[in-house]
């Protein structure tokens, strides 16, 4: 992490000391969406009870990350004529509300709103227009929207665990709080979070999130491919991926044999011995698919085509051997694998890339975005009645 400044957000977040932690295998969730409320509840309770027992406190409120594909980014512009010829807070708020009125919700709810930049008459790229003189103030925003039903289902799981939801954060935005450098945020970067059931990403430039998205393919799909290809149990396929898996071939792969139990077979001969190159042959096509889909999506963002030349990988899937090299080949940009910033008291096992989102949520909880809707305003979006837009207007007045 040398050669660049830590993110400015570190200056706003007090020193964090972890007094309790817990984790377990996720169940009842697929692709970031709840598919079994009871199983999801049990997973949350298990991790929660571990953390509470260690810390000696009772949890009451949480921030949740959104990693599913039922989110989308919308870009919109708004403007307002300056009656007095000077930009003030009221003019800024009116321009933002005009932009928000042009966002096509289509049954979605607002999760994040980021201001790309302001325009004042013919001048573009203005960050802080307060006090400046002009005739027309314009603004460009990016709104991240989500399916309110998916949010309600996640909230239901938390409610059954007697937890209140303080807010939702898309996974790469949370991860960015933990792994990105201030220079990367300023100069332009794509953060790719390689999760289990999904791969999500966010584009940052000039310290603003310009776009966010996700695809329903992640590292669990690699594990399933290995299990099918080698006809071995999923648990062993995960072990094979972790210990011997690689996204790029190695010179001695053909000579190195891996022993795998055959699914459903017993006895001394119920094993296969396969060359390590065969494992790579299963892993590489799936990882190529992931990065090709990511490339296709991010190339649609103008900032990526014009200025972004750097990619940062995080998430558990980034720990796969060779993934950095493969990502660089397909995405055509400089790539690095990020580790979350260490916290005092956090076990080493939880300081790995797979915990980047959780680490970022800790920072987010201490310094949440003023431009993020809270739970009540998000869930209220399910009907999109006049009251919903009135509440969004109130949120905008309070946040900007």
Written account of the structure:
The chain has a five-stranded mixed sheet, sandwiched between helices. Strands 4-7-5-6 form a four-stranded antiparallel sheet. Strands 1-2 form a two-stranded antiparallel sheet. 38% of the residues lie in helices and 24% in strands. It starts with 8 loop residues before the first helix and ends with a helix. It has two domains: 192 residues, ATPase, nucleotide binding domain (Nucleotidyltransferase, domain 5), CATH 3.30.420; 105 residues, 2-Layer Sandwich (Dna Ligase, domain 1), CATH 3.30.1490.
Topology of this protein?
Elements: H1 9-12, E1 29-30, E2 33-34, H2 37-55, E3 61-66, E4 71-81, H3 89-100, E5 109-120, E6 123-126, E7 136-146, H4 148-160, E8 164-170, H5 171-179, H6 182-187, E9 189-194, E10 199-205, E11 208-215, H7 219-230, H8 234-244, E12 257-261, E13 271-275, H9 276-298, H10 302-306, E14 310-314, H11 323-331, E15 334-337, H12 356-366, H13 375-379, H14 386-399
Helix pairs in contact: 2-4, 5-12, 7-8, 7-9, 9-11
CATH architecture of the largest domain: 2-Layer Sandwich
CATH superfamily of the largest domain: ATPase, nucleotide binding domain
Stretches with pLDDT under 50, minimum 5 residues: 1-10, 372-386
Distance between the termini: 33 Å
* Amount of beta strand: 15-25%
Total strand count, please?
A: 15
Structural class: alpha+beta
Name the strands of the widest sheet in spatial order.
11-10-9-14-15
CATH class of the largest domain: Alpha Beta
Mean pLDDT: 85
Q: Which series of helices and strands comes N to C? A: HEEHEEHEEEHEHHEEEHHEEHHEHEHHH
Number of domains: 2
Number of helices, where a helix is a run of at least 4 consecutive DSSP H or I residues: 14
The biggest beta sheet is recorded as: 5 strands, mixed
The best one-word shape is globular
């Amino acid at each position: 992490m040398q050669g660049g400044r830590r993110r400015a957000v570190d200056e706003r977040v007090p020193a964090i000391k972890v007094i309790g932690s817990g984790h377990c295998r996720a169940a009842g969730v697929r692709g970031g969406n709840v598919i079994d409320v009871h199983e999801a509840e049990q997973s949350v309770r298990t991790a929660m009870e571990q953390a509470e027992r260690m810390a000696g406190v009772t949890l009451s409120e949480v921030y949740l990350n959104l990693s599913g594909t039922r989110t989308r980014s919308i870009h919109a512009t708004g403007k307002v004529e300056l009656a007095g010829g000077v930009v003030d807070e009221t003019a800024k708020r009116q321009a933002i509300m005009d932009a928000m009125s042009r966002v096509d919700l289509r049954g979605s709810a607002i999760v994040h709103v980021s201001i790309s930049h302001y325009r004042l008459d013919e001048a573009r790229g203005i960050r802080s227009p307060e006090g400046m003189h002009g005739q027309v103030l314009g603004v460009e925003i990016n709104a991240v929207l989500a399916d309110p039903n998916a949010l309600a289902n996640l909230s239901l799981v938390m409610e059954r665990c007697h937890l209140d939801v303080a807010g939702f954060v898309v996974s790469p935005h949370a991860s960015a709080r933990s792994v990105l450098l201030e220079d990367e945020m300023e100069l332009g970067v794509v953060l790719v979070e390689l999760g289990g059931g999904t791969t999500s990403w966010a584009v940052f430039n000039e310290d603003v999130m310009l776009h966010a998205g996700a695809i329903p393919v992640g590292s669990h799909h690699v594990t399933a491919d290995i299990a099918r290809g080698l006809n071995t149990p999923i648990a062993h396929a995960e072990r094979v991926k972790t210990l011997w898996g690689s996204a790029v071939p190695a010179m001695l792969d053909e000579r190195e044999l891996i022993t795998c139990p055959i699914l459903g077979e017993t006895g001394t001969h119920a094993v296969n011995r396969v060359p390590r190159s065969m494992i790579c042959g299963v892993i590489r096509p799936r990882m190529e698919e992931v990065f090709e889909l990511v490339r296709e999506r991010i190339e649609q963002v103008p900032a990526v085509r014009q200025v972004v030349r750097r990619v940062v990988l995080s998430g558990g899937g980034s720990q796969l051997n060779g993934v950095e090299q493969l990502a660089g080949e397909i995405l055509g940009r400089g790539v690095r694998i990020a580790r979350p910033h260490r916290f005092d008291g956090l076990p080493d096992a939880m300081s790995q890339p797979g915990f980047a989102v959780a680490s970022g949520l800790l920072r987010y909880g201490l310094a949440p975005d003023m431009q993020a809707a809270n739970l009540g305003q998000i869930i209220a979006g399910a009907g999109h009645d006049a009251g919903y837009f009135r509440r969004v207007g109130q949120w905008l007045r309070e946040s900007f």
